Amino acid sequence: MDIREIEQKDNPAVAKIVRTVMMELGAPKVGTAYADPNLDTMFETYQKANAVYFVIENDGRIIGGAGIQKLDNGEDTICELQKMYFMPESRGLGVGSKMIALCLQQAKEFGFKKCYLETMPFMIDAQKLYKKSGFYNINGPMGNTGHTYCSVWMMKDL
């Protein structure tokens, strides 16, 4: 498996992964990443300063991804770990930990001091992974992500 930065040709595959995983988990379509207006244009969304989205490719097929960029309507020193989703065949292989480490290293290089994320309460395995990576729970949402259904908020000091 190779981890690399997203390319424009990856847009349909990344959008499909996010939507597929959201449906697999029974997540609502509204108030989650499923309905994000930029989901079909992920490459273009991350073509700005201090932003990057990585994909995992296996045998020419995209099977997961995660990104980092400044938290919308947040402090300049806070980034957000975004759209970290993996197809079932990539789970349990350590790629989530590798992806988080890569994103956080990039965040540090960009000069961010903290990393924020949101998730849903039933995404227990994801929360365990985030805590293993040094994230801790906080009491409320930050920024303006539009993810009203996400009620677990976490932070990591970089």
Helix-strand blueprint:
Layout lengths: L1 E4 L5 H14 L17 H4 L6 E7 L2 E10 L7 E9 L8 H16 L3 E6 L4 H9 L3 E3 L13 E6 L1
Parallel strand pairs: 4-5
Antiparallel strand pairs: 1-2, 2-3, 3-4, 5-7, 6-7
Which superfamily, in CATH terms, is the homologous superfamily? Answer: Gcn5-related N-acetyltransferase (GNAT)
Which structural class fits the helix and strand makeup?
alpha+beta
Number of strands: 7
| Largest sheet properties | 7 strands, mixed
Beta content: 25-35%
Cα-based radius of gyration, to the nearest Å? 14 Å
The helix tally amounts to 4
Mean pLDDT: 92
Order of helices and strands: EHHEEEHEHEE
Write down the CATH class: Alpha Beta
By oligomeric state, this entry counts as single chain
Give the CA-based shape: globular
| Low-confidence runs | none
Q: Could you walk me through the main structural features you see in this protein, from its secondary elements to its overall organization?
A:
- The protein has one domain: 3-Layer(aba) Sandwich (Aminopeptidase), CATH 3.40.630.30.
- It has four helices and seven strands; from the N terminus they run βααβββαβαββ.
- The protein has helices at residues 11-24, 42-45, 95-110, 124-132, and strands at residues 2-5, 52-58, 61-70, 78-86, 114-119, 136-138, 152-157.
- A hairpin with a 2-residue loop joins β2 and β3.
- The two termini are 27 Å apart.
